Amino acid sequence: MSLGYAEKLSYIEDVGEVGMREFFDLPDVLQEKIEKLAMTIKESKHLVVFTGAGISTSCGIPDFRGPKGIWTLQREGRPLPQASLPFHRAVPSMTHMALVELERAGILKFVISQNVDGLHLRSGIPREKLAELHGNSFMETCPSCGAEYFRDFEVESIGLKETSRHCSDANCGAKLRDTVLDWEDALPSKEMSCAEKHCRVADVVLCLGTSLQITPACNLPLKCLRGGGEIVIVNLQKTPKDKKASLVIRGFVDKVIAGAMNLLNMQVPPFVRIDYVQIILTKALSADEKYVNWMLRLSSVHGQKAPLPFIKSVEITFLDEEKYKAAVLHEQPFQLKRRTERTKVFEMVLKINLSNGCGCLCSQINIPFDPKVTTDCSTPDKDAVLQKLRDTAIQGLCCGQNAIIEKKIKSAPNGETSTFAIVTNIIMHNKASKAFEIEAISNRDNIKRRKRSARSNGSSRKRSKTKGSN
Q1: How far apart are CA 3 and CA 454, in angstroms?
Q2: CA–CA distance, 119 with 273 (Å, rounded to integer)
């Protein structure tokens, strides 16, 4: 029996209540829709992307309204999903990185996000082209001067409350606040203003992984309709805006976007995460001037009291003939105090053991020690150093590389602060589009085989029936 129109458009995975059900387009229909999406993106003049929790589920971050979403499980009294990795180590998905490539190509003009995971910024979307309507768990802002601070650790509060840190601007110094909204908080006017502006002039608003149910954010895509724009929705669940959309795609966001990027002949760039650590070395002569009392400290670039979440422990050994006693630092603050002879010159080796969620186990940094006052404070080209680190990581498909990007000298007390950049993750996404292409071809072949089999079985049944009636 042939499929009806509705059955052909999609099949349903029956999970949970009706509002929580997930729908999937049949493979051949899905491929047709992806081809239409690719053409829509290619022809767009002002593409705006509106994202929800569905683009981050492949990053290990649960959604809210899906069958295994946080709100769904809470309502059903079931235990909440366990994170597969620490929140601060979540890495951008294939979709996040595809949006970066579309922005770099000048196709994507603006991103509006309801997510607080910070992955759009971490992926490389410029801050001025991003509106985070519900805030960012890794962002602090100064209510006085407006400065923003994007952290490598999760800010400890929500609800626009004061945090334990201050603005680093010497002319300001005000207490910082978190940026994540609580239920009663209004959407930030600055973010909303930019989002509305871009939606009004957009010819396409592409909604990815969002239920489009949280007001007033969910009404933003509708603003493009007044100017003749169109809405495209990619989501597994039905949304209240489906009837307003020119195209609704029921499929996993990563697979849909991978297929579109493949049709557009655009490669999804790799994600390289670089974290920073300050290594502070202070030195002072002993009272009898025979020894040097020194301290080595590993500190966050966000402040000496800020955590270093990507470092689990530090092993320190010494390259010298006298074999100074090695040390293992297990707890923050990571610091080591020692006394050595005044004339002794040596080198320390720091094995920085990285935390869970990092792409490699450790990174090694060599620190020379000279009791004399250091005068070399030459500053390297930070951008060039970071680009070289990224290129090396991508070429070698590995992380752990590090390089110094800044050095500061202090005379009182005698010391030096070196800032190191460390590659802690590298994720390649290019294979995603190829995998989707192979899967799509395989699915089309399977469909053709099933149709041939169905026709064959139908003919057999007809022949059998005819024979029996004779």
Answers
A1: 11
A2: 11
> pLDDT, tens digit, for every residue of 348-401?
999 999 999 999 999 999 999 988 766 666 778 999 999 999 999 999 999 999
Model pLDDT, residue 444 = 42
The amino acid occupying position 14 is: D
How many other CB atoms sit within 10 Å of the CB of residue 88? 18
* Contact present, 253 and 263 (Cβ < 8 Å): no
Average pLDDT value for residue range 46-55: 96
**pLDDT single digits (tens) 179-202:** 999 888 999 999 999 999 999 999
Least confident interval from 24-33, 179-188, 214-223, 453-462: 453-462
Question: For the chain, which domains are there?
Answer: 2-137+180-269 (3.40.50.1220), 272-427 (2.60.40)
Over 70: is that where the pLDDT of 442 sits?
A: no
Burial 313-340 (b: 16+ CB within 10 A, else e): bbbbbbeeeeeeeeeebeebebebebeb
- The answer to whether residue 468 scores a pLDDT higher than 80 is no
Tokens of 39: 């053409």
Q: Mention every residue, 6+ apart, whose C-beta is less than 8 A from residue 179.
A: 132, 135, 136, 139, 140, 141, 155, 160, 188
Known catalytic residues are 134
The percent of residues above 90 in pLDDT, for the chain, comes to: 68
pTM summary value: 0.84
Query: Hey, what are 314's tokens?
Result: 């530090």
Nearest CA among 469, 68, 418 for reference residue 461: 469
Q: What would the 3-class secondary structure string for the chain be?
A: CCCCHHHHHEEEECCCCHHHCEEEECHHHHHHHHHHHHHHHHHCCCEEEEECHHHCHHHCCCCCCCCCCHHHHHHHCCCCCCCCCCHHHCCCCHHHHHHHHHHHCCCEEEEEECCCCCHHHHHCCCHHHEEECCCCCCEEECCCCCCEEECCCCCCCCCCCEEEEECCCCCCCCEEEECCCCCCCCCCHHHHHHHHHHHHHCCEEEEECCCCCCCCHHHHHHHHHHHCCEEEEECCCCCCCHHHCCEEECCCHHHHHHHHHHHCCCCCCCEEEEEEEEEEEEEEECCCCCEEEEEEEEEECCECCCCCCCEEEEEEEEECCCCCCCEEECCCCEEEEEEEECCCCEEEEEEEEECCCCCCCEEEEEEEECCCCCCCCCCCCHHHHHHHHHHHHHHHCCCCCEEEEEEEEEECCEEEEEEEEEEEEEECCHHHHHHHHHHHHHHHHHHHHHHHHHHHHHHHHHHHHHHHHC
